[in-house]
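Standup, Tuesday
Yesterday: got the pipeline producing structure tokens again.
Today: sanity-check two examples.
Blockers: none.

Example 1:
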Amino acid sequence: MMNEEDDNIYNLLTEYRERLKDNFLSIYLWNVDFILMNEVSIPCRLLITQKECGFLSGELYSQGVNEVNSGEILSLPLWLAKDLYSRGFIDINYPDFLSPKMMNALKTDPCSIDLAQISPYFFEVGIELSKIFKDEVFLKALFEAFKTRLEQLYLFTQCSNHCSINQVTLFRGNTDYMGIFLNTLTSCEKGILEECSFYQEDMDCRFYCVRKAM
């Protein structure tokens, strides 16, 4: 059973503030993608009535209400939702962009979905939540979708440098498909593409220098 101090989210957030002061040089605090991923909103249900926490609900706060009742639905950033869930303050639900409908779409054709529009941190947030819920089926669906999309990225990096226009039509027979697909990439996928492109350019440069030296 929690004592009065332990079951107060306001005290917990004060503790966070002091902890941030002590760890302000942490590498994670200066990683923009890490920060933005942890700021993704997650739907949660409060399990314990909280005083001085009206700011957790924009609607209640705008009405001047400073107490949040048990059962209230809140939209909390991932970093806070994970910690409050582990302490028994809240229940967590999958956000809409990770709904069963979305999972079915991923299983059908993951490359046709505009994940950049849905959430730039689609896979990262999905993996974090699947670990919380120990949802093996959900996690497997994410990995399979990620693998399929990486295969398309690999084909693009190979064909963009070494294939003719006719060969590029292996992308589902549509030369426009590459451009459309690249616009759907998540932040992680864009990072992988940039790394691959840099590596490919480096290799091309090395081969060119070798040829010139021969």
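Example 2:
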Amino acid sequence: MSTLSAGTGTLSHSDSTKTIKARHHYLPIEPPSYLSTAVRGLKGSLHVLTPPSNARTKGPFKPRSSRGTTSYQLRKFAEETLGSGSLRKAVKLPEGEDVNEWLAVNVVDFYNQINLLYGSITEFCSPQSCPEMKATDEFEYLWQDSENYKRPTKMSAPEYIEHLMAWVQGNIDNEQMFPSRTGVPFPKTFPALIRQMFKRLYRVYAHIYCHHYHVILKLGLEPHLNTSFKHYVLFIDEHTLASGKDFWGPLGDLVESMLKSD
């Protein structure tokens, strides 16, 4: 079994993962258009984390200086291109727009999508059924952060995912990392943070596919999971966010087929 952790082994990752206790709330999150009626019917009863409070998730977001499009308008652009049926088109940076703003808008949307999808199977993912955060027996993900878990720490899948989603939410709500005020630039560390966020969020997809896909099938959610993940894969490919041959781990073959089919 390969353990993905910080500074150990050929499959090691410098980020591991992070731990913050977060309260869960029953709160509806509006999914993108391709998460159709089946998912929309679930959203009122899902066990999901509170969405980030950053302005990107709330309505019109004022443009920074020298930029003519708000975050709200970028999100509308993404929704419109998704509605056109072309995922490859939907992931491209709109002409004349800031790449960091585009990455920020999309990581918020992917956070919400993953939160919603995982919320549909939480009753089947418990410390008893998933005592380790794995994607097959070959890949285990350990949690590490700069505050509470400074060493890679083994934990159950639901605990790991709860900490992961809280870590993402905390970063999105951090004005120093995700500035929402006009004229405030993104920090120089933003590209590295975005890569880390996409890398860690991928692990939720991997766990669902490898350990809960039978539940997804029973719920009739496989088209929505597959489309959401393909959107995620194409976005990462378009913006070169994957690093290292082991980035996709157990889903490498699926990712390869998705990239070839678009």
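Quick observation on example 2: The chain has one domain: 2-261. Confidence is low (pLDDT under 50) at residues 2-71, 80-84.
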